[in-house]
């Protein structure tokens, strides 16, 4: 039987060369690193608080707060790049050599990049939407466009429009959720860092840089991942359409896909019980 976990009893911090990283820890057993997504007012705690107690019944869960999102020390560079550095800094600081990873959206991309760069350090990988490449759907998706609109000109109305694009059932977006997201999303320092990633100007500059770059994008290196990988996706995802999963399913050495109906981008929230069943079965399976 799961028990509720509080923010205060699980909150911890650790100092690295790039600043203080804050995180939540719960449970015993093999280490499981949980990486949050991006967007206004996001935190690792808010992404995973609804499933943390269930996962902590099986694993030593570590919910990392990425730099630049208002909880860990702010970052000087692009939030995505800093998040990738933070994973290595965090695991090294805790003395963890090998870990399983769950990553939501941006966190899934960061976890995938880590599994490509340091395959021997990842036991198993679970992604929740986002990690892949659009095949049929236009890019960026509706949710990303709404995110850019909010970042350019943050209003409460635009925040609500973006939040509702994240889910299949609009009832998930409560007044309490809107308020807690609004308070952090409009913090001046957090908003300034968000604009490095999601303002229209920054997004367009990033797109141009990617087209001009000779570096191989992460989605073209998925074959380097040696860890068994479970891709989870909401069928009705308006942020990262489900056709993005086709490329990983083609390229991963040992990948499987679970799509949840009547579910948007927050699979671990909207399809909570079914998602937990699939993820725990995968992580606990001895032959995976």
TrEMBL record:
Keywords: Hydrolase
Pfam families: Abhydrolase_1
Protein name as catalogued: Alpha/beta fold hydrolase
AB hydrolase-1 domain: residues covered: 30-270
Species whose genome carries this gene: Rhodococcus zopfii
Matching PANTHER family: AB HYDROLASE SUPERFAMILY PROTEIN YCLE, MONOACYLGLYCEROL LIPASE
Annotated GO MF terms: hydrolase activity
Superkingdom of source: Bacteria
């Amino acid at each position: 039987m799961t028990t509720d976990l509080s923010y205060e009893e699980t909150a911890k911090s650790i100092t690295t060369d790039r600043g203080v990283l804050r995180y939540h820890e719960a449970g015993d057993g093999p280490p499981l690193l949980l990486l949050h997504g991006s967007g206004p007012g996001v935190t690792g705690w808010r992404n995973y608080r609804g499933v943390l107690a269930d996962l902590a019944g099986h694993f030593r869960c570590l919910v990392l707060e990425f730099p630049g999102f208002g909880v860990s020390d702010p970052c000087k560079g692009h939030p995505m790049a800093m998040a990738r550095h933070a994973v290595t800094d965090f695991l090294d600081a805790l003395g963890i050599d090998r870990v399983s990873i769950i990553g939501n959206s941006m966190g899934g991309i960061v976890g995938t990049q880590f599994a490509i760069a340091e395959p021997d350090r990842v036991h198993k990988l679970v992604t929740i939407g986002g990690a892949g490449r659009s095949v049929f759907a236009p890019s960026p998706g509706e949710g990303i466009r709404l995110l850019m609109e909010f970042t350019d000109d943050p209003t409460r109305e635009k925040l609500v429009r973006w939040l509702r694009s994240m889910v299949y059932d609009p009832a998930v977006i409560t007044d309490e959720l809107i308020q807690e997201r609004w308070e952090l999303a409009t913090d001046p320092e957090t908003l300034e860092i968000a604009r490095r990633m999601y303002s229209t100007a920054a997004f367009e500059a990033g797109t141009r840089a990617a087209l001009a770059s000779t570096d191989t994008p992460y989605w073209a290196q998925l074959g380097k991942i040696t860890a068994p990988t479970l891709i989870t996706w909401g069928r009705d995802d308006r942020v990262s359409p489900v056709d993005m999963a086709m490329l990983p399913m083609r390229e991963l050495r040992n990948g499987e896909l679970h799509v949840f109906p009547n579910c948007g981008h927050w699979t671990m929230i909207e399809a909570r019980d079914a998602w937990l069943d699939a993820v725990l079965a995968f992580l606990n399976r001895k032959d995976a």
